[in-house]
Write a structure and sequence with these properties.
homodimer; alpha/beta; Dihydrofolate Reductase, subunit A; nine-stranded mixed β-sheet; two-stranded antiparallel ribbon; 6 helices; 12 strands; 27% helix
Chain lengths: 230, 230
């Protein structure tokens, strides 16, 4: 059955890239150092696989996770900013090899590349997910990013599974996946269930099923007044 | 050799309690629901309940982690706000069973309780850590909390080990362990090394060695233009 999934590399303090700055060259700006640090595990794994021709030999846990991620996705949903950043560098054969639905306000013809099509959806996020679901052929709909879109899909209640790749670094400042913009009151939370933890040397992969919103019970397990506070 | 350690229960979005509110009764305020949610794993564990003089609880991986935490600590450093919150409820036999050094601006005589002493240190955090180190008898100095103190110890370069207990919940708003107040530039990070991951059913425990500050290399591993962007 098709699930809507997302995965993102984040620092231990929850940043998926450095601080946003749209004023200059991205590679020279404040976003890049943080981005390359938190995604280093993936770039290393991909480079390794490319060198191996993606066949046989010893594979790292990281490499397997990337292969599994590509294999599970039948279609993608993507934010406009991520598409803009990738359109040129991805070249003639983008890495998705599946239909991609870009959430945008700017209408545009479908862009066909080798193995990947980009369809520009101006009717909103839910419509993009719906189109991706129909195109996924029973496989998963993967939210490709960026972080803003992952957060929107989650808060809209559309996300079934979230996998975080937690890089062991604190960036201090940066764009955070969860920055308080979840629209939750002090008594509300979004509950998840960890379903898989992969403890790789340079990154910890935690996969969650999203259980959904629920009230936070004021439940001290009968220990009221005796708690070791934080 | 004595290490300076800290451990904290946090939500997946990095909060150790709900939003701060000093205006009313803590139990009825916005902090409590988040606090009880992220610490639920500990309150349920047998080792924690034993320390508090409560019966019951579960013997589990979580319980072992708590027992280990208490066993490793030869002395504690604590923030003033945490002490104030705990002084009355901890009663005649606080759960620490070791010397505790409270960082505060208010001088006060040493407070002796059964098995635990509280020494009030007005000469700052470094002095409190120094005193705790001398009192630890070769065991570890544990930063008991709160979150602000953990952050201060970390940014002061005094922390050797950090263990986070990541509860599978998003609180949206709350007091964050890492909220950007780390004093790092966009090119700087604090590097850590994961040394142990315990994948318990309701919480993921990740222990890190703190490696320290370092420059974030703008290193794309030669993959520029081929990245699956975020």
């Amino acid at each position: 059955m098709t699930k809507v999934t997302a995965q993102l590399s984040v620092s231990l303090d929850g940043c998926y890239t450095g601080p946003r700055d749209d004023t200059g060259d991205w590679m020279q700006g404040p976003e890049a150092p943080g981005f390359f640090r938190v995604t280093r595990w993936a770039v290393d794994a991909m480079a390794w696989r490319e060198r191996q021709g993606f066949a046989g030999g010893e594979q790292s846990a990281d490499s397997e996770i990337i292969a599994e991620m590509f294999a599970a996705a039948g279609a993608y949903v993507m934010g406009r900013r991520m598409f803009d950043a990738g359109e040129v560098p991805w070249g003639d054969e983008p890495p998705f090899h599946a239909p991609v639905f870009v959430v945008t306000h700017r209408p545009r013809e479908v862009l066909e590349r080798q193995g990947t099509s980009f369809t520009f959806v101006t009717e909103g996020l839910e419509r993009a997910v719906e189109l991706a679901r129909a195109a996924a052929g029973g496989k998963d709909v993967a939210v490709a990013g960026g972080g803003q879109l992952v957060r929107q899909v989650l808060t809209a209640g559309l996300l079934d599974q979230l996998e975080l790749h937690i890089a062991p670094v604190l960036l201090g400042d940066g764009q955070r996946l969860f920055d308080g913009g979840l629209g939750l009151g002090a008594d509300d939370g979004i509950e998840l269930t960890p379903t898989r933890v992969v403890d790789a040397p340079g990154v910890t992969h935690i996969r969650y099923t999203v259980s959904g919103r629920s009230k936070l019970a004021l439940d001290d397990r009968g220990a009221s007044g005796e708690l070791v506070g934080q």
